[in-house]
Design a protein that fits this description.
Length: 110
C-alpha cells in the first residue's frame, strides 16, 4: 500500500486535483501531523495529529463547522507512518478513501 500511495503522490505532484490545493502537499501536511482544515460535502473538518508522551501517535478528523462533537475519524498507532496509512485507507469521505474523494475535498487555509 505504501508504494501505491507514493506512486499516487508522484502522479499528483505535477497538478492540482483537489479544490484549492495540491493533493500531494495536503498529504505531506497530514504525514507531518500539521493541523489542517478542509471542507467535504459542505462541512468543515479539522485534522490534527500528535505524538503522545508514551511515544505512540494519535491522529483524528473532527467536524469543525457547523460546531459539533462529531469525530469523523480517529486512529492511534505506534508510528506516524501507520497512522498516515490508516488515514489514506479510511473510507471517511462518504464511504470513499482520500484518493477516491480528493476532487471533492477543498483545502481551507485558515
Amino acid at each position: 500500500m505504501l508504494l501505491n500511495n507514493l506512486m499516487r503522490m508522484f502522479e499528483l505532484s505535477e497538478g492540482i486535483t483537489m479544490k484549492n490545493g495540491n493533493a500531494a502537499e495536503f498529504i505531506d501536511r497530514i504525514y507531518s501531523c500539521q493541523d489542517t482544515i478542509f471542507i467535504f460535502n459542505g462541512i468543515k473538518y479539522w485534522f490534527q495529529g500528535y505524538t503522545l508522551p508514551c511515544g505512540t501517535v494519535h491522529m483524528e478528523v473532527s467536524q469543525y463547522q457547523p460546531v459539533s462533537e462529531r469525530c469523523l475519524w480517529t486512529h492511534d498507532g505506534t508510528t506516524i507512518e501507520e497512522c498516515h496509512e490508516a488515514f489514506l485507507a479510511a473510507p471517511m469521505f462518504g464511504g470513499k478513501t482520500f484518493w477516491e474523494a480528493e476532487q471533492d475535498i477543498e483545502w481551507v487555509d485558515e
